[in-house]
């Protein structure tokens, strides 16, 4: 029987492992399929990639020395690049070369110019052979140069020997563990390397193959040779990018824990602080031209060895550079090999190391010979100085450094800047281009008190062609939200941490996002929909707020000087607008009611936190709550959400997660403020009368829920809800928006002031083997926003005593933190014990962290509990040989305990868990009371909201069941049925004398000339003639005609005229289409004609003071136009009036006019 039990348990264990493996493989397969589909979607909004090189043009200029008498031959100075395939441009005249006899060229036609001086020669290469031949010719000159002599680099060697202290060599062979840790760092989106291996290929490679590969790499380093196959690189020529968005103590380029944001945040912060304190500051920005191609190899290898790089690695690198060959690949055809004896190949990881070595020398050189501050990012070099004389001296020293390396600074990308006009004038005297603002490493830099947002707005405008594409995507809403978060907002707000922008731009992005999500219904509030009812990052305002906070926090932790600048800035700040990272932080904090006292921020509840030390998860919770409370406060000003005081978004999230997607979207229509009452719809839709379709009373949400007789049975099913209805705020009962938890602020303040409570033994009697069991406990682990209430305990199995227990302080009330603190307390007693100590923990995270420190004392976890881990590290230092950690399974059943040791560990682990639960009684009474009040209110609001959701769904079903508007489409035939007689309600008894008083054209009337200048002569004259002619009709009547009827009439050509189009250069001005190129003239939409007519008659009234009788709220529902329309009283013939009605009915037959978007189409 015992054997059968063992066989069964073995089968069960293996079966569970197999099921777990199968589920994992299935999950990964589904994840790959989902990722593939998402990649296709993101490819639609990704910037267009570069196409392979298909055509190549080479341009050059040469002097014309003479011209033949007939003008068909010229004598040129440079004949090296001229062949019969060339095209010559001589002062705008393009000619082909018929023949070339040395410097004498015969042209296809005579030259028109009498005395030409310069000829521009263009050579075209279109076939693969021609392109590869020219590329090989061009790049060979750059990659293979005359061998430099030893004296060429003597300055570099002498400088290094004098000022660079030699560092001992550091080399160790690659191990499998290092290889695995390196491959783990690759992201899922990591590209394949030149070897063709993907991320998963490297991570899932069998260990035997990994060992073989690592042995080969170590062997290559030992012999100093690469395999020949790895010394060949394939070059895919692409068109050159117009700009670069790569960016990052003073050296930032492609180094560990460095980033591009550091360099422009630091520079802009220095500028901002200088302007505030009125200290002079100037700078210089430059770029090395073809840096990687020009770097000398011998000095780099020598400097690398002096700086402590491994000789094996350097020898292997030298072998690679000497034996590397490049082959151009075009249309799947590989060109001949091209060798090189200078520079390092672009795209190679070691090339970044080469540039880093050169930058080390650059910074050392500038520190020694110039009184400036130097910064670098790969080949981007920058200088800062308080005086222009020192800056000019620094520029000269920078050129001297580049000459030492035989490098050339790019004059086109070099410029100076200064913070004051006086300094800028001095910089201009040094014959250097001076800029007020520019894009530096992709970020919009402002070099002075005059702020510019042009570069940042260009990024926002670049999204314009993508919005329509996103609107047309037939994908789920959550996919569109993901596209906004991962593709649109990062592109729009890159570098915005130093750029202060108007809130108007964020509102525009919100509007576009609402359209893309198809949530732009009447009354819908973009902030409520995007920030509260969706993921908060969907709101561009919150995304911007969060990214600025993250960037500022990250740079403060990386750059100690940045933190000093921040403190100095805030000490001098007097409240005036400031532009830069500090002004930006002030701007975003003001939006959510936060205050700044570096390095502390005080949130909207008056609780202070250290921006540098707070964990990212906690900071995100604070940011989301602050932003959503601000959105709710702005939304609460509406009359239909009375009683809304903040928002309890945690209640909303919990209820929303339990709803089906279609129900959740239906509830969002109420919660985002969309107008759902017929009373409101009747203001812009005349087909609705504003009364309840069931009882005829005035329609409103309150009427449907509380008063309408048709919903009496629904109300009877919710007696508790009806009992408390009058006590609920209107925003909660009608719009399903719970106000913020009134106990949350008090709890946050109590929690911030509360200290950790601890009780424990002073000492333990020493034991040869001491076993300490630790555990952490959370009363409410499902509520991680500080309400979890964490506690811990330490129990000694050898003494059968509770060694210590206590509570956790701070907002981070999690079981993980409680477990780590418990291990820290156990370590204190373990250090005091003279024998061996084993610390037992059922938390894998905590036990694994301690195991890492015991294995390597310097390997300390750097997560949100880093402060506790550092204390554990200090305690374990020197005691790792006698202190051990052991993980034990938690909460095991008695039927699974097979050995005595299992029973023993289970007993003491349960004992530690029980003591941790008892430790909660140490918490302060006021803190625990406010916590319970907050949680009770949360649960109560959640249950009420669930009832309200069910109640509103049943109300909606009651009205939907017999609502004919939800089943019957608009009667198109009725829209076309226009009475033969005129609408008597639109006939006006007043006369329209101004129509006959319109002046004749041409003429010298001043008002007429103003109309002609604004709308063009042809349109103005034709409209004047038509309006006068209509008054002369025998059956003319004064009729209230709408502008939309006039627009359809003109659009169908019933008035003999040419419709002008808007002038692109001047606002509110129209031009005759015949004076414009045909390519930009297109059919005008009804909306465009409406705008033209509205401006025409308004200008007519203004120029002649005619007192035109305008009419509002014309009812055109009989012809398919539901919104009330604006019009005017005109004297028109009866036939014209009838024709207009018929035309409008025909236009709206296929698509009724219910909103402004229905007018965005041509008339025919």
UniProtKB/TrEMBL annotation:
PROSITE patterns: RNASE_H_1. Residues 766-921 form the RNase H type-1 domain. GO terms for molecular function: nucleic acid binding; RNA-DNA hybrid ribonuclease activity. Pfam families: RNase_H. This is RNase H type-1 domain-containing protein. The lineage of its organism: Eukaryota, Sar, Alveolata, Dinophyceae, Suessiales.
């Amino acid at each position: 029987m015992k054997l059968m039990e063992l066989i069964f348990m073995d089968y069960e264990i293996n079966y569970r492992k197999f099921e777990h493996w199968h589920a994992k493989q299935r999950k990964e397969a589904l994840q790959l399929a989902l990722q593939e589909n998402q990649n296709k979607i993101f490819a639609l909004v990704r910037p267009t990639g570069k196409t392979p090189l298909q055509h190549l043009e080479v341009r050059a200029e040469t002097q014309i020395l003479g011209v033949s008498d007939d003008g068909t031959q010229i004598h040129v100075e440079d004949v090296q690049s001229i062949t019969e395939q060339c095209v010559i441009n001589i002062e705008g005249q393009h000619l082909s070369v018929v023949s070339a006899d040395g410097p004498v060229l015969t042209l296809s036609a005579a030259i028109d110019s009498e005395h030409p001086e310069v000829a521009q020669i263009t050579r075209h290469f279109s076939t693969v052979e021609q392109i590869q031949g020219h590329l090989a010719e061009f790049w060979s000159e750059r990659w293979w140069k005359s061998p430099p002599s030893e004296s060429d680099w003597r300055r570099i060697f002498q400088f290094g020997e004098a000022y660079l202290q030699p560092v001992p060599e550091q080399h160790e062979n690659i191990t499998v563990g290092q290889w695995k840790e390196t491959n783990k760092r690759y992201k899922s989106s990591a590209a394949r390397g030149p070897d063709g291996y993907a991320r998963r290929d490297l991570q899932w490679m069998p260990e035997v193959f990994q060992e073989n590969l690592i042995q080969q790499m170590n062997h290559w380093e030992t012999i100093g040779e690469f395999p020949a196959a790895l010394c060949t690189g394939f070059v895919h020529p692409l068109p050159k990018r117009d700009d670069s968005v790569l960016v990052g103590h003073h050296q930032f380029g492609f180094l560990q824990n460095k980033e591009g944001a550091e360099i422009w945040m630091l520079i802009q912060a220095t500028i901002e602080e200088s302007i505030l304190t009125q200290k002079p500051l100037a700078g210089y920005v430059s770029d090395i031209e073809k840096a990687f191609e020009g770097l000398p190899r011998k000095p780099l290898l020598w400097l690398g060895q002096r700086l402590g790089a491994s000789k094996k690695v350097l020898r292997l690198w030298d072998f690679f550079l000497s034996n590397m060959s490049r082959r151009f690949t075009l249309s799947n055809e590989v060109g001949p090999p091209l060798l090189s004896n200078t520079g390092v190949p672009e795209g190679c990881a070691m090339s970044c190391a080469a540039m880093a070595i050169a930058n080390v020398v650059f910074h050392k050189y500038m520190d020694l010979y110039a009184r400036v501050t130097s910064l670098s990012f790969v080949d981007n070099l920058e200088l800062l100085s308080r005086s222009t004389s020192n800056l000019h001296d620094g520029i000269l020293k920078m050129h001297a450094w580049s000459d030492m390396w035989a490098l050339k600074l790019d004059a086109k990308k070099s410029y100076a800047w200064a913070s004051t006009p006086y300094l800028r004038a001095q910089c201009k005297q040094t014959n250097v281009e001076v800029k007020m603002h520019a894009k530096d490493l992709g970020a919009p830099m402002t070099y002075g008190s005059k702020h510019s947002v042009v570069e940042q707005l260009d990024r926002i405008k670049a999204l314009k062609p993508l919005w329509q594409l996103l609107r047309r995507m037939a994908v789920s809403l959550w996919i569109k939200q993901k596209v906004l978060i991962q593709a649109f907002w990062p592109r729009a707000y890159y570098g915005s941490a130093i750029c202060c922008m108007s809130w108007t731009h964020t509102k525009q992005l919100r509007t576009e996002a609402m359209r893309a999500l198809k949530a732009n219904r009447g009354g819908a509030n973009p902030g409520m929909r995007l920030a509260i009812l969706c993921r908060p990052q969907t709101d561009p305002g919150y995304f911007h707020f969060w990214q600025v906070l993250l960037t500022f926090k990250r740079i403060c932790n990386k750059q100690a000087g940045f933190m000093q600048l921040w403190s100095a800035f805030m000490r001098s700040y007097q409240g005036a607008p400031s532009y830069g990272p500090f002004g930006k932080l002030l701007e975003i904090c003001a939006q959510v009611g936060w205050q700044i006292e570096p390095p502390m921020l005080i949130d909207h509840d008056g609780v202070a936190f250290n921006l540098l030390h707070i964990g990212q998860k906690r900071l995100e919770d604070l940011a989301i709550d602050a932003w959503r409370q601000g959105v709710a406060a702005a939304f609460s000003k509406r009359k239909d959400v009375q009683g809304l005081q903040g928002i309890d978004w945690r209640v909303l999230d919990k209820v929303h997660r339990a709803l089906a997607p279609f129900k959740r979207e239906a509830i969002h229509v109420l919660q985002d403020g969309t107008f759902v009452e017929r009373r409101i719809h009747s203001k812009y839709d005349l087909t609705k009368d504003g009364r309840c379709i069931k009882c005829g009373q005035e329609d409103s949400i309150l009427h449907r829920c509380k008063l309408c007789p048709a919903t009496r049975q629904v109300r009877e099913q919710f007696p508790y809800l009806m009992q408390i209805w009058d006590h609920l705020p209107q925003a909660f009962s009608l719009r399903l928006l719970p106000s913020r938890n009134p106990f949350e602020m008090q709890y946050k303040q109590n929690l911030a002031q509360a200290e950790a409570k601890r009780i424990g033994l002073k000492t333990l009697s020493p034991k040869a083997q001491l076993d300490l069991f630790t555990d952490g406990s959370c009363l409410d682990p499902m509520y991680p926003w500080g309400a979890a209430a964490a506690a811990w305990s330490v129990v000694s199995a050898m003494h059968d005593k509770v060694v210590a227990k206590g509570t956790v302080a701070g907002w981070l009330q999690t079981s993980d933190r409680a477990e780590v603190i418990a291990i820290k307390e156990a370590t204190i007693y373990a250090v005091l014990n003279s024998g061996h100590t084993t610390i037992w923990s059922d938390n894998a995270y905590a036990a694994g962290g301690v195991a890492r420190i015991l294995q390597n004392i310097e390997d300390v976890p750097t997560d949100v509990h880093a402060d506790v881990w550092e204390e554990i590290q200090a305690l374990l230092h020197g005691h790792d040989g006698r202190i051990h950690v052991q993980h034990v399974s938690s909460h095991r059943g008695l039927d699974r305990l097979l050995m005595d040791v299992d029973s023993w560990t289970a007993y003491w682990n349960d004992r530690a868990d029980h003591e941790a639960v008892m430790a909660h009684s140490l918490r302060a009474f006021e803190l625990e009371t406010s916590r319970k009040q907050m949680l009770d209110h949360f649960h109560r609001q959640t249950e009420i909201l669930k009832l309200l959701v069910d109640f509103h769904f049943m109300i909606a079903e009651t009205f939907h069941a017999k609502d004919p508007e939800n089943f019957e489409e608009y009667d198109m035939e009725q829209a076309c049925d226009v009475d033969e007689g005129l609408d008597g309600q639109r006939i006006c008894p007043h006369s329209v004398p101004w129509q006959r008083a319109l002046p004749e054209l041409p003429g010298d009337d001043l008002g007429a000339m103003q109309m002609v200048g604004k709308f063009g002569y042809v349109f103005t004259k034709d409209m004047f003639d038509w309006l006068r002619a209509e008054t002369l009709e025998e059956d003319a009547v004064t009729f209230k005609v709408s502008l939309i009827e006039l627009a359809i009439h003109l659009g169908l050509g019933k008035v003999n005229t040419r419709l002008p189009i808007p002038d692109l250069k001047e606002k509110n001005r129209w031009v005759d289409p015949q004076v414009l190129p045909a390519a930009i003239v297109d059919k005008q939409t009804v909306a465009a004609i409406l705008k033209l007519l509205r401006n025409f008659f308004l200008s007519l009234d203004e120029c002649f003071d005619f007192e035109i009788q305008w009419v509002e709220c014309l009812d055109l529902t009989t012809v398919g136009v539901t919104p009330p329309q604006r019009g005017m009283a005109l004297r028109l013939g009866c036939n014209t009036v009838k024709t207009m009605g018929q035309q409008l009915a025909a236009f709206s037959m296929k698509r009724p006019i219910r909103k402004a978007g229905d007018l965005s189409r041509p008339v025919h």
